[in-house]
Amino acid sequence: DHPLVFQAGDGDNTLELNGSVYGHVIVDEGVTLHIPDGASLRINGTVEVRSDIVNDGSVEIDEGGILQADGAFSNSGGIMVGLVDKGMDDEIVEIQNAMIIAAQGIESTGFIICDGYVEGTITVNDGNITVGAGSVDHLILNDGLYIDDGGTVGEFTQNGGKTTSAAQGYYY
Description:
Blueprint: E1 4-6, E2 14-16, E3 19-21, E4 24-27, E5 32-35, E6 40-43, E7 46-49, E8 53-55, E9 58-61, E10 66-69, E11 73-75, E12 78-81, E13 99-102, E14 106-108, E15 111-114, E16 117-124, E17 128-131, E18 135-141, E19 145-148, E20 152-158, E21 162-165
Parallel strand pairs: 1-4, 2-5, 3-6, 4-7, 5-8, 6-9, 7-10, 8-11, 9-12, 10-13, 11-14, 12-15, 13-16, 14-16, 15-17, 16-18, 17-19, 18-20, 19-21
């Protein structure tokens, strides 16, 4: 019923998570949230990070899940916004109630699959992004691949990289 709050203390203020969140977790200012390589964070509730996020593993935001990032957000692993397997039966997937709110945006060299909402800017410097049934406020493609799979991108800036679509045979 009450949020679980992680506050900064003396020494290294990095919180490494590997598991699932079903309630409300607050990672306070001064504490960096890190998902290490090989680890997975599954969000079925709300994770509110008032500092930075470093994702080297996997972040999955399920239906009804919210990840809020107030600080810098870097992704070299994978991020799935929504239940990706909901669309694997050749049926039309509707936008899902899964959300990332990234105040300072997301810098990505990994992969992102969006069947929910991303509020903020995603900058793809390598890797790829697939916007399925989801919605992204602003996408900047510097390098890598953008796969349009029927979703919505509010503002798109292409400085490099390649674009394609699921209609051309590319899927996530």
